Amino acid sequence: MIIDGKSVAAKIEEEIKKDVEELKKKGVEVTIAPVLVGSDPGAKVYYKAKQKQAERLGIRFKGVELPDDTTEAQLIKVLEDLGKDPGVHGIFIELPLPKQIDLQRVAEAIPPEKDIDCLNPKNLGKLIAGGAVGATFSELRTRLDFMLPTTPQAVMELILAYQIPLMGKEVVVVGRGAVGLPLAVLFLREGCSPVTVVRGASPTLGEITRRADILCACVGRAKLIKGDMIKKGAYVLDVGINPTPEGGIVGDVDFESAKEVAEGITPVPGGVGPVTTALIFAHTVQAAKYLSR
Ligand SMILES: NC(=O)c1ccc[n+]([C@@H]2O[C@H](COP(=O)([O-])OP(=O)(O)OC[C@H]3O[C@@H](n4cnc5c(N)ncnc54)[C@H](OP(=O)(O)O)[C@@H]3O)[C@@H](O)[C@H]2O)c1
Known about the structure:
Layout: H1 5-25, E1 31-37, H2 41-57, E2 60-61, E3 64-66, H3 72-84, E4 90-93, H4 103-107, H5 121-128, H6 131-134, H7 137-140, H8 150-161, E5 171-174, H9 180-189, E6 195-198, H10 205-209, E7 214-217, E8 235-238, E9 242-243, E10 249-250, H11 255-258, E11 264-265, H12 272-291
Parallel strand pairs: 1-2, 1-3, 1-4, 5-6, 5-7, 7-8, 8-11
Antiparallel strand pairs: 9-10
Helix pairs in contact: 1-12, 8-9, 8-12
């Protein structure tokens, strides 16, 4: 079975359009403010794509473009100004940032209630606060005052949409980065056990991934996970985005060999990516609802 991110994203977008119309009737023009710093080609592509998608969804795009030599202090000032602007609901920082800027330091300048990708450490802390007793993923995703990090949430939304069973299932997350760590927390919150986080470079990677009922690849290494590293009947969620010399993208999973053993698998492109993008806008709508309540 192909786990189709495009169809899940389309459903989220239908809800967004309805909500945008409702808010418009109340005089609220939902506004997203992505901030692009420098000239990284990947960051520019995502920024431009957001502009188009915002137009399609009826969301106002108030993007900010800053030069390569922007300082941390300058970026913090821009984020603070957007934070104070009552006409802005969602603030997003395009990645990667130029080397002189530390994401952790600048992210603190995004007000938590406008932080649509959970970058502010105050919001990230809510992910673990209270442990599993605090809230399950299902509870967290419906809270109006807090937005989860979009990519880990996208993986979980695909699991919910395809009714992939989680209770008592063994999860392996490959990658300990910005996606892998919070994703592992969401699985734990939802009752999965054990949840293993393994580095992409682990010498025993295959041994560990073969244990997984649910396998998530979040490393950023093209086709690292082959079919013989996957348990028969597992569900495979491929977060990785790796550019190919031909100008396309591939995931961290070797799709052709993996689909022969997996019960369900996300393609790249067309899997986790479109759901992540849809959630960026869904969170902007959520922030607009919260701020105009
Ligand atoms: N589909 C989507 O919508 C979406 C969204 C965001 C990201 N992505 C993709 O998902 C992949 C992972 O993204 P990410 O943001 O999680 O990347 P990240 O934070 O850079 O982490 C990825 C890997 O980098 C390595 N790494 C190097 N130094 C590290 C350090 N000091 N701390 C932690 N990890 C370190 C780790 O691998 P080792 O443990 O093996 O060293 C880690 O697993 C990338 O391919 C990215 O393009 C996709």
